[in-house]
Amino acid sequence: MRLTVIGCAGSYPGPESPASCYLVEAPYAGRTFRLLIDLGNGALGPLQRYVGLDEIDAIAVSHLHPDHYMDVCGMYVYRRYVTGGPLPRIPTWGPTGSADRFALAYDLPLDPGMSEVLDVSTWVDGVAVELGPFTVTPHLMDHPVEAYALRVEAGGAVLTYSGDTGPTPALVEAARDADLFLCEASFTDNPLNPPHLHLTGTDAGEAATGAGVGRLLLTHIPAWTDRDLIAAEAKAAFTGPSELAEAGAVYEVG
Q1: Is this prediction's pTM over 0.90?
Q2: What one-character DSSP code corresponds to residue 77?
Q3: Structural domain tally of the chain?
Q4: pLDDT digits (tens, 9 = 90+) for 217-245
Q5: Separation of alpha carbons 100 and 20, rounded Å
Q6: CATH code, 230
Q7: Hey, CA dihedral for 104, 143, 244, 13, is it positive or negative?
Q8: Per residue in 113-124, pLDDT tens?
Q9: How does DSSP classify residue 88?
């Protein structure tokens, strides 16, 4: 399994990175299957440096905040209107109401919405979905909207993506024994941080320790947050290898 970080900025695109978007690839049926996890604002352009938009096989959306799904609108335009289009419908998974939210974001009528090019299905907490070589299991997190961590398994390798969440035991279960834990760390330690929203570097490190992960990759850090402090907090709470996600970085999982 290979992970390419397309965008890792938290809450909005930053000067060095688009918002959340991760390309996950694995061999399947004699070719490479490409799963896109989240498609936040600003991500669609840089994505094309790594893969053609007609080569995406499936999309998994963790939750319906714009920094995690808004560039679905651009994907719809491409797949609907590209020369020779529309392209075949692409399996797309997201929280309750995803199809309607995608339609509203592009000012489309709810029926048919984007259904000409997106085959939208709804996550069910704890129920695994098969997407090519990947088994993707959503785990409900602690966030102001319905939000999921996604545990992605293929060929014996495990990648867990936290999505957005406050501290919750469900995150530790989602990341249990993962080879790579892609975990948000939006806040630095501060008693004034709002609850039920995001993690600190310490929270991410503690979750990684509790889950027994092999490697921690810190992501979703807003431009206003001190990245070095996030990294130091995580290292104090997790003794395994950890680093900050960077747009364009590639990781082999497993």
Answers
A1: yes
A2: H
A3: 1
A4: 999 999 999 999 999 999 999 999 999 99
A5: 21
A6: 3.60.15.10
A7: positive
A8: 999 999 999 999
A9: P
